[in-house]
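FAQ: What does the model actually see?

It sees only this:
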Amino acid sequence: MKLFFRQKICFTILALLTMNISVMAQKYKTVTEVKGLNVGTKAPMFTARDDNNVKYKLEKALKKGPVVVLFYRGQWCPVCNKYLSRLQDSLQQIYDKGATVVAISPEKSAFLKQTRVKTNASFTLLYDNNYVIGDAFDVTFKPEDKIINLYNEKLNAQFERSHSDDSVRLPVPATFIINKKGIIVWRHFNPDYRIRAGVKDIINNIPAN
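And it is asked to produce this:
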């Protein structure tokens, strides 16, 4: 009888370990698995800290008008920096339509500050702590290890310092326009990080207040 119970306990432990390993292996999506929230979807009402540790609430921002929410990879990404600089150059046209802009990355405050210096961005930059916002918008994926190593070595990404944990996930650089009712009315989503939302397209798709 004792042998039977020992065997049963060992089998249960083995089954749990196997299950945990399987869950861990499937925990993070690949770049081909993330799809981004669709137009017509209610946007997640997130709260996050900016580069000055000031709390930002999407729900509060929407009371003033539509919000352009975009995700970028980090201060180490030259494509992101070039794009944010271009967006900054057209920022007044977005403001003229009654909208605001918030750019989100998985980088901590000190690294957001580097983005601001490199791009001259005057719009809100937010730290996506633990990838909560990216996960909610279904844009967060796990790159291959060789890609992570490449970014660390060639672009000085410093993932071990800049991110909230060592899982090293990144967002697809997606853009969502959210109306005052909290509904996504337009989006740009492309897994190819080199292809970004056209600034003119963003401006043309901002809904009237």
